[in-house]
Amino acid sequence: MSRTPSRRTVLRGLTATGAAVIGFDPASRSWAATTSESGTELAGIPRLVGTLLTDEPSLTAAADDYGHIVHHRPVAVLRPGAVRDVVAMVRFCNEHCLPVAPRGQGHAPFGQAQVRGGLVIETTPLADIGPVGPDSTTVTVGAGARWSDVAKATLAHGLTPPVFTDYLELSVGGTLSVGGMGGQVHRHGAQVDNVTELRVVTGTGELVRCSPSRRADLFHAVLAGLGQCGVIVEATLRLVRAPETVRHYQLSYDDLETFLDDQRALVEEGRFDYVEGQVFADADGTFRVYTLEAVAYGPPAGPAPDDTALLRGLRHDPSRVHSADLPYYDFLDRLAPVIAAMKEAGVWTYAHPWLNLMLPGDSAATVSARILDALTPADLGPGVILFYPLLRDRLTTPLLRTSDEDVSYLFDILGATPPNDTAAVERRLAANRAAYEAAAAVGGTQYPVGSIPFTPADWRTHFGPAWPGLEAAKRTYDPRGILVPGQNVF
Length: 490
Ligand SMILES: Cc1cc2nc3c(=O)[nH]c(=O)nc-3n(C[C@H](O)[C@H](O)[C@H](O)COP(=O)(O)OP(=O)(O)OC[C@H]3O[C@@H](n4cnc5c(N)ncnc54)[C@H](O)[C@@H]3O)c2cc1C
Description:
Layout: E1 9-15, E2 18-25, E3 30-33, E4 51-53, H1 56-62, E5 76-79, H2 83-95, E6 100-103, E7 119-122, E8 138-142, H3 147-155, E9 159-160, H4 172-176, H5 185-188, E10 195-202, E11 207-210, H6 216-222, E12 230-238, E13 240-241, E14 245-253, H7 256-269, E15 274-281, E16 287-297, H8 307-311, E17 321-327, H9 328-332, H10 336-345, E18 355-360, H11 364-373, H12 377-380, E19 384-391, E20 407-414, H13 422-441, E21 445-446, H14 456-463, H15 467-477
Parallel strand pairs: 5-7, 6-7
Antiparallel strand pairs: 1-2, 2-3, 4-5, 8-12, 9-13, 10-11, 10-12, 14-16, 14-17, 15-16, 15-19, 18-20, 18-21, 19-20
Helix pairs in contact: 6-15
The structure holds flavin-adenine dinucleotide.
Flavin-adenine dinucleotide (FAD) binds next to strand 6, helix 4 and strand 12.
Protein backbone atom coordinates (compact mmCIF):
# COMPACT_ATOMS: atom_id res chain seq x y z
CA MET A 1 0.00 0.00 0.00
CA SER A 2 1.19 3.49 -0.80
CA ARG A 3 2.50 5.49 2.12
CA THR A 4 2.12 8.76 0.21
CA PRO A 5 -0.57 10.79 1.95
CA SER A 6 -1.50 12.67 -1.22
CA ARG A 7 -2.61 9.39 -2.86
CA ARG A 8 -4.90 8.55 -0.04
CA THR A 9 -8.07 9.60 1.48
CA VAL A 10 -7.48 9.96 5.16
CA LEU A 11 -10.02 9.91 7.92
CA ARG A 12 -9.08 12.02 10.84
CA GLY A 13 -10.68 11.41 14.17
CA LEU A 14 -9.89 12.11 17.75
CA THR A 15 -9.29 9.18 20.02
CA ALA A 16 -9.35 9.42 23.75
CA THR A 17 -5.61 9.87 23.68
CA GLY A 18 -5.44 12.55 21.01
CA ALA A 19 -5.30 12.77 17.23
CA ALA A 20 -5.39 9.54 15.28
CA VAL A 21 -5.30 9.23 11.53
CA ILE A 22 -6.10 6.25 9.39
CA GLY A 23 -5.53 6.13 5.70
CA PHE A 24 -7.74 4.61 3.06
CA ASP A 25 -6.42 3.79 -0.40
CA PRO A 26 -9.33 3.97 -2.84
CA ALA A 27 -7.40 2.05 -5.51
CA SER A 28 -6.82 -1.04 -3.39
CA ARG A 29 -9.77 -0.35 -1.08
CA SER A 30 -7.58 -1.00 1.93
CA TRP A 31 -6.94 0.92 5.10
CA ALA A 32 -3.94 1.39 7.34
CA ALA A 33 -2.85 3.47 10.24
CA THR A 34 -0.60 6.30 9.20
CA THR A 35 1.66 8.61 11.09
CA SER A 36 0.84 11.51 8.77
CA GLU A 37 -1.38 14.17 10.23
CA SER A 38 -1.15 16.65 7.38
CA GLY A 39 -4.71 16.52 6.18
CA THR A 40 -4.70 19.62 4.04
CA GLU A 41 -4.13 17.95 0.66
CA LEU A 42 -6.34 14.96 1.39
CA ALA A 43 -9.77 14.75 -0.13
CA GLY A 44 -13.06 13.46 1.25
CA ILE A 45 -12.36 13.64 4.94
CA PRO A 46 -15.60 13.79 6.89
CA ARG A 47 -15.37 16.24 9.75
CA LEU A 48 -16.70 14.51 12.81
CA VAL A 49 -18.19 15.79 16.03
CA GLY A 50 -17.52 12.42 17.59
CA THR A 51 -14.65 9.98 17.52
CA LEU A 52 -13.22 7.53 15.04
CA LEU A 53 -11.51 4.81 17.02
CA THR A 54 -8.72 2.70 15.58
CA ASP A 55 -7.04 1.53 18.76
CA GLU A 56 -6.57 -2.16 19.41
CA PRO A 57 -9.06 -2.57 22.26
CA SER A 58 -11.84 -0.85 20.26
CA LEU A 59 -11.25 -2.98 17.15
CA THR A 60 -10.99 -6.16 19.20
CA ALA A 61 -14.21 -5.38 21.06
CA ALA A 62 -16.03 -4.71 17.78
CA ALA A 63 -14.83 -8.09 16.50
CA ASP A 64 -16.68 -9.89 19.28
CA ASP A 65 -20.26 -10.15 20.45
CA TYR A 66 -22.47 -12.02 22.89
CA GLY A 67 -21.96 -15.24 20.96
CA HIS A 68 -18.11 -15.23 21.07
CA ILE A 69 -18.21 -17.47 18.00
CA VAL A 70 -17.55 -15.13 15.05
CA HIS A 71 -14.71 -12.59 15.00
CA HIS A 72 -14.56 -10.13 12.10
CA ARG A 73 -12.28 -7.20 12.67
CA PRO A 74 -13.28 -3.75 11.43
CA VAL A 75 -10.72 -1.09 10.56
CA ALA A 76 -12.44 1.62 12.49
CA VAL A 77 -15.24 2.19 14.96
CA LEU A 78 -17.28 5.37 14.81
CA ARG A 79 -18.46 6.71 18.12
CA PRO A 80 -20.77 9.38 16.72
CA GLY A 81 -21.11 12.73 18.43
CA ALA A 82 -24.27 13.42 16.47
CA VAL A 83 -26.45 11.92 13.75
CA ARG A 84 -24.53 13.97 11.18
CA ASP A 85 -21.44 11.84 11.93
CA VAL A 86 -23.40 8.75 10.89
CA VAL A 87 -24.51 10.52 7.72
CA ALA A 88 -20.96 11.63 6.91
CA MET A 89 -19.35 8.26 7.48
CA VAL A 90 -22.02 6.23 5.68
CA ARG A 91 -21.66 8.60 2.70
CA PHE A 92 -17.93 8.15 2.80
CA CYS A 93 -18.21 4.36 3.00
CA ASN A 94 -20.78 4.31 0.20
CA GLU A 95 -18.49 6.37 -2.00
CA HIS A 96 -15.68 3.87 -1.47
CA CYS A 97 -17.81 0.70 -1.30
CA LEU A 98 -16.74 -0.04 2.26
CA PRO A 99 -18.89 -2.26 4.45
CA VAL A 100 -20.62 -0.75 7.46
CA ALA A 101 -22.56 -2.14 10.41
CA PRO A 102 -24.31 -0.35 13.24
CA ARG A 103 -23.86 -1.91 16.65
CA GLY A 104 -26.14 -1.33 19.62
CA GLN A 105 -25.33 -3.50 22.62
CA GLY A 106 -23.58 -6.18 20.55
CA HIS A 107 -25.92 -8.88 21.87
CA ALA A 108 -26.45 -10.61 18.54
CA PRO A 109 -24.58 -13.92 18.93
CA PHE A 110 -23.30 -14.77 15.45
CA GLY A 111 -21.37 -11.82 14.03
CA GLN A 112 -24.48 -9.98 12.84
CA ALA A 113 -23.11 -6.58 13.92
CA GLN A 114 -19.53 -7.26 12.84
CA VAL A 115 -17.83 -6.14 9.65
CA ARG A 116 -14.52 -7.41 8.39
CA GLY A 117 -12.34 -4.58 7.07
CA GLY A 118 -15.07 -1.97 7.36
CA LEU A 119 -16.66 0.43 9.76
CA VAL A 120 -18.67 -0.35 12.89
CA ILE A 121 -20.94 2.48 14.01
CA GLU A 122 -21.66 2.44 17.71
CA THR A 123 -25.17 3.68 18.36
CA THR A 124 -24.86 3.95 22.15
CA PRO A 125 -24.10 7.69 22.05
CA LEU A 126 -27.38 8.29 20.16
CA ALA A 127 -29.49 7.61 23.23
CA ASP A 128 -31.57 10.75 23.84
CA ILE A 129 -35.06 10.12 25.14
CA GLY A 130 -37.49 12.82 24.03
CA PRO A 131 -39.97 14.62 26.24
CA VAL A 132 -42.80 12.60 27.78
CA GLY A 133 -45.84 13.98 29.59
CA PRO A 134 -48.76 12.26 31.29
CA ASP A 135 -50.85 12.47 28.10
CA SER A 136 -48.14 11.39 25.63
CA THR A 137 -49.12 8.67 23.19
CA THR A 138 -45.58 8.28 21.83
CA VAL A 139 -41.98 8.96 22.77
CA THR A 140 -39.10 9.60 20.39
CA VAL A 141 -35.79 7.99 21.35
CA GLY A 142 -32.31 7.63 19.92
CA ALA A 143 -31.57 4.21 18.44
CA GLY A 144 -28.86 3.59 21.03
CA ALA A 145 -31.20 4.04 24.00
CA ARG A 146 -31.65 0.88 26.02
CA TRP A 147 -35.15 -0.37 26.75
CA SER A 148 -34.46 -0.09 30.50
CA ASP A 149 -33.89 3.67 30.10
CA VAL A 150 -36.95 4.08 27.90
CA ALA A 151 -39.04 2.25 30.51
CA LYS A 152 -37.75 4.39 33.38
CA ALA A 153 -38.31 7.64 31.47
CA THR A 154 -41.88 6.81 30.49
CA LEU A 155 -42.87 5.17 33.79
CA ALA A 156 -42.10 8.47 35.50
CA HIS A 157 -45.35 9.61 33.78
CA GLY A 158 -47.32 6.40 34.30
CA LEU A 159 -46.72 5.30 30.69
CA THR A 160 -44.90 2.42 29.05
CA PRO A 161 -44.12 0.94 25.66
CA PRO A 162 -46.54 -1.98 25.39
CA VAL A 163 -43.96 -4.70 24.60
CA PHE A 164 -40.59 -5.50 26.10
CA THR A 165 -37.93 -8.06 25.45
CA ASP A 166 -37.21 -10.25 28.48
CA TYR A 167 -33.86 -8.53 28.89
CA LEU A 168 -34.01 -4.75 29.00
CA GLU A 169 -30.38 -3.84 28.28
CA LEU A 170 -30.74 -4.18 24.52
CA SER A 171 -30.72 -1.13 22.24
CA VAL A 172 -33.91 0.12 20.65
CA GLY A 173 -32.23 0.07 17.21
CA GLY A 174 -30.97 -3.48 17.79
CA THR A 175 -34.34 -4.98 18.66
CA LEU A 176 -36.23 -2.98 16.01
CA SER A 177 -33.86 -4.47 13.44
CA VAL A 178 -34.96 -7.99 14.37
CA GLY A 179 -38.49 -7.75 15.81
CA GLY A 180 -38.48 -7.42 19.60
CA MET A 181 -40.41 -10.31 21.18
CA GLY A 182 -41.73 -10.72 24.68
CA GLY A 183 -44.68 -12.15 26.57
CA GLN A 184 -46.91 -9.19 25.61
CA VAL A 185 -46.64 -9.85 21.85
CA HIS A 186 -49.87 -11.87 21.71
CA ARG A 187 -51.70 -8.74 22.80
CA HIS A 188 -49.81 -5.84 21.20
CA GLY A 189 -47.65 -7.31 18.46
CA ALA A 190 -43.85 -7.16 18.57
CA GLN A 191 -41.83 -4.03 19.34
CA VAL A 192 -41.62 -3.37 15.58
CA ASP A 193 -45.42 -3.28 15.43
CA ASN A 194 -45.43 -0.42 17.91
CA VAL A 195 -43.30 2.12 16.05
CA THR A 196 -44.97 5.13 14.45
CA GLU A 197 -41.96 6.81 12.80
CA LEU A 198 -38.26 6.30 12.21
CA ARG A 199 -35.29 8.46 11.24
CA VAL A 200 -32.95 6.39 9.13
CA VAL A 201 -29.58 6.95 7.46
CA THR A 202 -29.79 4.98 4.24
CA GLY A 203 -26.87 3.16 2.65
CA THR A 204 -26.24 6.19 0.45
CA GLY A 205 -25.99 8.44 3.51
CA GLU A 206 -29.36 10.12 3.12
CA LEU A 207 -31.11 11.04 6.39
CA VAL A 208 -34.77 10.15 5.93
CA ARG A 209 -37.85 10.36 8.13
CA CYS A 210 -40.21 7.49 7.35
CA SER A 211 -43.50 6.10 8.63
CA PRO A 212 -46.41 4.03 7.34
CA SER A 213 -47.55 7.10 5.38
CA ARG A 214 -44.20 8.63 4.39
CA ARG A 215 -41.53 6.67 2.51
CA ALA A 216 -43.42 3.56 3.61
CA ASP A 217 -41.18 1.30 1.52
CA LEU A 218 -38.18 2.32 3.64
CA PHE A 219 -40.14 2.10 6.92
CA HIS A 220 -41.21 -1.46 6.13
CA ALA A 221 -37.74 -2.44 4.91
CA VAL A 222 -36.05 -1.22 8.07
CA LEU A 223 -38.32 -2.65 10.78
CA ALA A 224 -37.14 -6.25 11.31
CA GLY A 225 -34.96 -5.59 8.25
CA LEU A 226 -31.67 -6.75 9.81
CA GLY A 227 -30.00 -3.41 9.06
CA GLN A 228 -30.01 -4.07 5.32
CA CYS A 229 -31.48 -0.78 4.09
CA GLY A 230 -30.53 1.80 6.67
CA VAL A 231 -29.15 2.69 10.06
CA ILE A 232 -31.98 3.57 12.44
CA VAL A 233 -30.92 6.71 14.31
CA GLU A 234 -34.21 7.54 15.99
CA ALA A 235 -37.55 5.80 16.61
CA THR A 236 -40.93 7.04 17.77
CA LEU A 237 -42.53 4.41 19.98
CA ARG A 238 -46.15 3.96 20.98
CA LEU A 239 -47.00 4.34 24.68
CA VAL A 240 -49.83 2.92 26.76
CA ARG A 241 -50.85 3.33 30.39
CA ALA A 242 -48.64 1.29 32.73
CA PRO A 243 -49.87 -0.83 35.62
CA GLU A 244 -48.44 -0.05 39.03
CA THR A 245 -48.18 -3.69 40.01
CA VAL A 246 -48.62 -7.04 38.27
CA ARG A 247 -49.50 -10.55 39.44
CA HIS A 248 -47.01 -13.07 38.13
CA TYR A 249 -48.03 -16.76 37.99
CA GLN A 250 -45.87 -19.81 37.40
CA LEU A 251 -47.90 -22.92 36.60
CA SER A 252 -46.41 -26.42 36.36
CA TYR A 253 -47.14 -28.98 33.65
CA ASP A 254 -45.71 -32.43 32.97
CA ASP A 255 -46.95 -32.78 29.41
CA LEU A 256 -45.73 -30.70 26.47
CA GLU A 257 -48.96 -30.77 24.46
CA THR A 258 -51.11 -29.73 27.41
CA PHE A 259 -48.68 -26.94 28.26
CA LEU A 260 -48.70 -25.62 24.67
CA ASP A 261 -52.49 -25.98 24.37
CA ASP A 262 -53.02 -23.95 27.53
CA GLN A 263 -50.62 -21.28 26.24
CA ARG A 264 -52.61 -21.19 23.01
CA ALA A 265 -55.96 -20.97 24.82
CA LEU A 266 -54.70 -18.13 27.00
CA VAL A 267 -53.47 -15.98 24.13
CA GLU A 268 -56.55 -16.65 22.00
CA GLU A 269 -58.75 -15.63 24.90
CA GLY A 270 -56.51 -12.72 25.96
CA ARG A 271 -57.00 -13.41 29.66
CA PHE A 272 -53.47 -12.39 30.63
CA ASP A 273 -51.27 -9.46 29.59
CA TYR A 274 -48.16 -11.58 29.27
CA VAL A 275 -47.73 -15.28 28.45
CA GLU A 276 -44.47 -17.20 28.11
CA GLY A 277 -43.15 -20.54 29.30
CA GLN A 278 -39.98 -22.47 30.08
CA VAL A 279 -38.80 -26.06 29.83
CA PHE A 280 -36.50 -27.70 32.35
CA ALA A 281 -34.78 -31.06 32.61
CA ASP A 282 -36.04 -33.57 35.16
CA ALA A 283 -33.75 -35.52 37.49
CA ASP A 284 -32.92 -37.92 34.63
CA GLY A 285 -31.76 -35.07 32.41
CA THR A 286 -34.80 -35.27 30.12
CA PHE A 287 -36.43 -31.98 29.13
CA ARG A 288 -40.01 -32.61 30.23
CA VAL A 289 -40.76 -30.20 33.06
CA TYR A 290 -42.81 -27.25 31.82
CA THR A 291 -43.63 -23.94 33.52
CA LEU A 292 -46.22 -21.62 32.06
CA GLU A 293 -45.55 -18.03 33.03
CA ALA A 294 -48.55 -15.67 32.91
CA VAL A 295 -48.90 -12.13 34.16
CA ALA A 296 -52.01 -10.04 34.80
CA TYR A 297 -51.59 -6.28 35.01
CA GLY A 298 -53.25 -4.48 37.89
CA PRO A 299 -54.73 -0.96 37.96
CA PRO A 300 -54.67 1.43 36.22
CA ALA A 301 -53.83 -0.77 33.20
CA GLY A 302 -56.17 -3.62 34.18
CA PRO A 303 -58.59 -4.77 36.90
CA ALA A 304 -57.38 -6.11 40.25
CA PRO A 305 -56.24 -9.69 39.45
CA ASP A 306 -58.74 -12.40 40.43
CA ASP A 307 -56.99 -15.77 40.90
CA THR A 308 -60.09 -17.87 40.40
CA ALA A 309 -61.08 -16.20 37.15
CA LEU A 310 -57.53 -16.08 35.81
CA LEU A 311 -56.74 -19.76 36.42
CA ARG A 312 -60.16 -21.21 35.55
CA GLY A 313 -60.06 -24.21 33.19
CA LEU A 314 -56.25 -24.44 32.98
CA ARG A 315 -54.74 -27.92 33.23
CA HIS A 316 -51.63 -27.22 35.31
CA ASP A 317 -50.81 -29.08 38.50
CA PRO A 318 -52.92 -27.13 41.05
CA SER A 319 -50.64 -28.17 43.91
CA ARG A 320 -47.71 -26.31 42.35
CA VAL A 321 -48.94 -22.79 41.63
CA HIS A 322 -46.59 -19.93 42.44
CA SER A 323 -47.83 -16.38 42.31
CA ALA A 324 -46.35 -13.09 43.39
CA ASP A 325 -47.32 -9.44 43.16
CA LEU A 326 -44.53 -7.22 41.87
CA PRO A 327 -44.04 -3.57 41.00
CA TYR A 328 -44.33 -3.32 37.20
CA TYR A 329 -40.72 -2.24 36.63
CA ASP A 330 -39.39 -5.05 38.84
CA PHE A 331 -41.35 -7.48 36.70
CA LEU A 332 -39.95 -5.99 33.46
CA ASP A 333 -36.44 -6.08 34.88
CA ARG A 334 -36.79 -9.53 36.47
CA LEU A 335 -33.73 -10.88 34.66
CA ALA A 336 -31.37 -8.28 36.13
CA PRO A 337 -30.44 -10.30 39.25
CA VAL A 338 -30.18 -13.53 37.22
CA ILE A 339 -27.81 -11.90 34.76
CA ALA A 340 -25.77 -10.31 37.54
CA ALA A 341 -25.35 -13.82 39.00
CA MET A 342 -24.38 -15.23 35.58
CA LYS A 343 -21.76 -12.53 35.16
CA GLU A 344 -20.48 -13.21 38.65
CA ALA A 345 -20.23 -16.94 37.84
CA GLY A 346 -18.36 -16.21 34.60
CA VAL A 347 -20.95 -17.80 32.29
CA TRP A 348 -21.90 -14.52 30.56
CA THR A 349 -18.69 -14.86 28.57
CA TYR A 350 -19.53 -18.40 27.40
CA ALA A 351 -20.21 -18.99 23.71
CA HIS A 352 -23.92 -18.70 22.88
CA PRO A 353 -24.88 -20.87 19.91
CA TRP A 354 -28.54 -19.87 20.23
CA LEU A 355 -31.45 -21.48 18.43
CA ASN A 356 -34.62 -19.42 17.90
CA LEU A 357 -37.38 -20.97 15.83
CA MET A 358 -40.82 -19.82 14.78
CA LEU A 359 -42.96 -22.97 14.81
CA PRO A 360 -46.46 -23.30 13.35
CA GLY A 361 -48.97 -23.94 16.14
CA ASP A 362 -50.20 -27.28 14.79
CA SER A 363 -46.77 -28.90 14.57
CA ALA A 364 -45.01 -27.07 17.42
CA ALA A 365 -45.37 -29.95 19.89
CA THR A 366 -44.09 -32.60 17.46
CA VAL A 367 -41.13 -30.59 16.16
CA SER A 368 -40.05 -29.21 19.53
CA ALA A 369 -40.42 -32.63 21.21
CA ARG A 370 -38.00 -34.14 18.70
CA ILE A 371 -35.51 -31.34 19.24
CA LEU A 372 -35.82 -31.58 23.04
CA ASP A 373 -35.46 -35.37 22.97
CA ALA A 374 -32.08 -34.98 21.30
CA LEU A 375 -30.90 -32.26 23.70
CA THR A 376 -28.85 -33.02 26.82
CA PRO A 377 -28.31 -30.78 29.84
CA ALA A 378 -24.66 -30.56 28.77
CA ASP A 379 -25.77 -29.22 25.36
CA LEU A 380 -27.84 -26.52 27.04
CA GLY A 381 -25.23 -25.65 29.66
CA PRO A 382 -26.23 -22.72 31.88
CA GLY A 383 -28.95 -21.69 29.45
CA VAL A 384 -32.73 -21.63 29.16
CA ILE A 385 -35.49 -22.99 26.91
CA LEU A 386 -38.46 -20.76 26.20
CA PHE A 387 -41.82 -20.87 24.43
CA TYR A 388 -43.72 -17.71 23.46
CA PRO A 389 -47.20 -18.20 21.95
CA LEU A 390 -47.89 -15.66 19.18
CA LEU A 391 -51.02 -14.59 17.34
CA ARG A 392 -50.49 -13.94 13.66
CA ASP A 393 -53.03 -11.14 13.41
CA ARG A 394 -51.10 -9.04 15.95
CA LEU A 395 -47.88 -9.22 13.90
CA THR A 396 -48.19 -6.64 11.14
CA THR A 397 -44.56 -5.94 10.19
CA PRO A 398 -43.92 -7.56 6.80
CA LEU A 399 -40.31 -8.59 7.50
CA LEU A 400 -41.02 -10.21 10.88
CA ARG A 401 -41.70 -13.74 9.71
CA THR A 402 -43.68 -16.37 11.58
CA SER A 403 -45.70 -19.26 10.17
CA ASP A 404 -48.91 -18.86 8.17
CA GLU A 405 -51.00 -20.39 10.95
CA ASP A 406 -53.09 -18.25 13.30
CA VAL A 407 -50.92 -19.31 16.25
CA SER A 408 -47.16 -19.78 16.13
CA TYR A 409 -44.69 -20.44 18.92
CA LEU A 410 -41.32 -18.80 19.26
CA PHE A 411 -39.23 -21.70 20.58
CA ASP A 412 -35.82 -20.74 21.95
CA ILE A 413 -32.97 -22.96 23.08
CA LEU A 414 -30.60 -20.40 24.56
CA GLY A 415 -27.57 -22.55 25.26
CA ALA A 416 -24.19 -21.58 26.67
CA THR A 417 -20.96 -23.45 25.97
CA PRO A 418 -17.47 -22.88 27.41
CA PRO A 419 -15.89 -20.57 24.79
CA ASN A 420 -12.80 -22.70 24.23
CA ASP A 421 -14.85 -25.84 23.52
CA THR A 422 -15.02 -25.19 19.78
CA ALA A 423 -16.08 -28.77 19.03
CA ALA A 424 -19.17 -28.34 21.22
CA VAL A 425 -19.96 -25.03 19.52
CA GLU A 426 -19.66 -26.67 16.09
CA ARG A 427 -21.98 -29.48 17.22
CA ARG A 428 -24.56 -26.97 18.40
CA LEU A 429 -24.34 -25.00 15.14
CA ALA A 430 -24.95 -28.20 13.15
CA ALA A 431 -27.84 -29.12 15.47
CA ASN A 432 -29.28 -25.62 15.04
CA ARG A 433 -29.18 -25.99 11.29
CA ALA A 434 -30.91 -29.39 11.45
CA ALA A 435 -33.55 -27.97 13.80
CA TYR A 436 -34.15 -25.04 11.44
CA GLU A 437 -34.64 -27.46 8.55
CA ALA A 438 -37.15 -29.48 10.59
CA ALA A 439 -39.04 -26.25 11.33
CA ALA A 440 -38.91 -25.08 7.71
CA ALA A 441 -40.23 -28.46 6.52
CA VAL A 442 -43.50 -27.81 8.40
CA GLY A 443 -43.82 -24.14 7.43
CA GLY A 444 -41.80 -22.59 10.25
CA THR A 445 -38.69 -20.45 10.12
CA GLN A 446 -36.19 -18.84 12.47
CA TYR A 447 -36.43 -15.69 14.59
CA PRO A 448 -33.14 -14.11 13.51
CA VAL A 449 -31.40 -13.44 16.81
CA GLY A 450 -29.50 -16.69 17.05
CA SER A 451 -26.70 -18.73 15.57
CA ILE A 452 -28.03 -20.70 12.64
CA PRO A 453 -25.73 -20.96 9.59
CA PHE A 454 -27.84 -19.22 6.92
CA THR A 455 -27.19 -18.47 3.23
CA PRO A 456 -28.69 -15.72 1.04
CA ALA A 457 -30.91 -18.43 -0.51
CA ASP A 458 -32.16 -19.33 2.99
CA TRP A 459 -33.01 -15.67 3.60
CA ARG A 460 -34.99 -15.53 0.38
CA THR A 461 -37.03 -18.52 1.60
CA HIS A 462 -37.29 -17.02 5.07
CA PHE A 463 -38.70 -13.70 3.86
CA GLY A 464 -41.04 -15.42 1.39
CA PRO A 465 -43.63 -12.97 0.08
CA ALA A 466 -41.79 -10.08 1.76
CA TRP A 467 -38.58 -10.78 -0.17
CA PRO A 468 -39.36 -8.73 -3.34
CA GLY A 469 -40.07 -5.64 -1.21
CA LEU A 470 -36.82 -6.06 0.72
CA GLU A 471 -34.84 -6.66 -2.45
CA ALA A 472 -36.34 -3.57 -4.13
CA ALA A 473 -35.65 -1.44 -1.06
CA LYS A 474 -32.06 -2.73 -0.95
CA ARG A 475 -31.56 -1.63 -4.56
CA THR A 476 -32.99 1.81 -3.78
CA TYR A 477 -31.51 2.52 -0.37
CA ASP A 478 -28.25 0.55 -0.35
CA PRO A 479 -27.42 0.11 -4.04
CA ARG A 480 -23.77 -0.68 -3.34
CA GLY A 481 -24.65 -3.27 -0.73
CA ILE A 482 -22.45 -1.83 2.01
CA LEU A 483 -24.81 -2.30 4.97
CA VAL A 484 -24.56 -5.08 7.53
CA PRO A 485 -22.76 -7.91 5.72
CA GLY A 486 -22.71 -9.93 8.96
CA GLN A 487 -26.33 -10.97 8.35
CA ASN A 488 -25.34 -12.58 5.02
CA VAL A 489 -28.67 -11.63 3.44
CA PHE A 490 -27.44 -10.33 0.05
C1 LIG B 1 -29.47 -11.90 27.14
C2 LIG B 1 -30.31 -11.64 25.90
C3 LIG B 1 -31.68 -11.62 26.00
C4 LIG B 1 -32.47 -11.41 24.86
N1 LIG B 1 -33.82 -11.41 25.00
C5 LIG B 1 -34.60 -11.19 23.92
C6 LIG B 1 -36.01 -11.17 24.04
O1 LIG B 1 -36.59 -11.38 25.10
N2 LIG B 1 -36.73 -10.91 22.92
C7 LIG B 1 -36.14 -10.65 21.72
O2 LIG B 1 -36.84 -10.37 20.75
N3 LIG B 1 -34.81 -10.69 21.59
C8 LIG B 1 -34.03 -10.96 22.66
N4 LIG B 1 -32.68 -11.00 22.50
C9 LIG B 1 -32.11 -10.84 21.16
C10 LIG B 1 -31.92 -9.36 20.85
O3 LIG B 1 -33.18 -8.71 20.75
C11 LIG B 1 -31.22 -9.15 19.50
O4 LIG B 1 -30.03 -9.86 19.40
C12 LIG B 1 -30.95 -7.66 19.30
O5 LIG B 1 -30.64 -7.42 17.95
C13 LIG B 1 -29.81 -7.23 20.19
O6 LIG B 1 -29.80 -5.83 20.33
P1 LIG B 1 -28.38 -5.10 20.35
O7 LIG B 1 -28.63 -3.68 20.72
O8 LIG B 1 -27.41 -5.83 21.18
O9 LIG B 1 -28.05 -5.21 18.80
P2 LIG B 1 -26.65 -5.62 18.10
O10 LIG B 1 -26.26 -6.99 18.51
O11 LIG B 1 -25.69 -4.54 18.35
O12 LIG B 1 -27.12 -5.63 16.57
C14 LIG B 1 -27.97 -6.64 16.11
C15 LIG B 1 -28.19 -6.45 14.60
O13 LIG B 1 -28.94 -5.26 14.37
C16 LIG B 1 -28.18 -4.33 13.60
N5 LIG B 1 -28.42 -3.02 14.22
C17 LIG B 1 -28.08 -2.63 15.46
N6 LIG B 1 -28.48 -1.35 15.66
C18 LIG B 1 -29.04 -0.94 14.51
C19 LIG B 1 -29.60 0.29 14.08
N7 LIG B 1 -29.66 1.34 14.89
N8 LIG B 1 -30.08 0.36 12.83
C20 LIG B 1 -30.04 -0.70 11.98
N9 LIG B 1 -29.50 -1.88 12.33
C21 LIG B 1 -29.01 -2.00 13.59
C22 LIG B 1 -26.74 -4.77 13.75
O14 LIG B 1 -25.94 -4.37 12.65
C23 LIG B 1 -26.89 -6.27 13.81
O15 LIG B 1 -27.06 -6.81 12.53
C24 LIG B 1 -31.86 -11.21 23.61
C25 LIG B 1 -30.47 -11.24 23.50
C26 LIG B 1 -29.70 -11.45 24.64
C27 LIG B 1 -28.22 -11.51 24.50
